[in-house]
UniProtKB/TrEMBL annotation:
<dbReference type="InterPro" id="IPR036265">
    <property type="entry name" value="HIT-like_sf"/>
</dbReference>
<dbReference type="GO" id="GO:0003824">
    <property type="term" value="F:catalytic activity"/>
</dbReference>
<dbReference type="Pfam" id="PF11969">
    <property type="entry name" value="DcpS_C"/>
</dbReference>
<protein>
    <recommendedName>
        <fullName>HIT domain-containing protein</fullName>
    </recommendedName>
</protein>
<dbReference type="InterPro" id="IPR011146">
    <property type="entry name" value="HIT-like"/>
</dbReference>
<feature type="domain" description="HIT">
    <location>
        <begin position="9"/>
        <end position="55"/>
    </location>
</feature>
Amino acid sequence: MKKKNTECIFCLKDDFSLNKVKQDQILLRDDEFSVFFDINPASEYHLLVIPNVHM
């Protein structure tokens, strides 16, 4: 597993965690990626697709 990046908002446990995302907002989660609705959407279907490990 790769080291977490301290400048990446998706790697910082205090600022972001998929565990904090409401389960009904997560559309897909597999071993590599997670897809969920943005908490501050710019459009009706504004989705975030992020890797589960920092790249």
